Amino acid sequence: MLKGLSPILSPDLLWTLRAMGHGDEITIVDANYPATSAGPELIRIDAATAPQVLEAILSLLPLDQYDDVAAISMQVVGDPDRREPIVDEFEAIVRKHEPEHRVHSLERFAFYERANAGYAIVQTGETRQYGNLILKKGIVRPS
Question: What's the predicted TM-score (pTM) here?
């Protein structure tokens, strides 16, 4: 255990966040996402919800300041304009840590393609549908 860090941030997740470079993408997914077969490194955090994991990750990870689309959710199948309540939770957390960003969305299969080509996937115990979010890493500016 370390002071000041969420216990959700496992050693594997901390290593991954630190190893990622500018522009690399990490995806937080719900319990139903086909993450094991997706391809990228898989980190499991089954005892936490997707918003809890997002909160922990954004306490450390900067979003890409050069890309307006650095947080991306999955669109509802058959109703791309509908926004699930979990996406509103994601939005509030993103705005808390990165006020200049908002959550965008992608069609389901486009989301899978992008997530599966990313750096890593963090599978949560989230049981609500559409509890999936891609994050594009930015840089920490020199002080």
Answer: 0.96
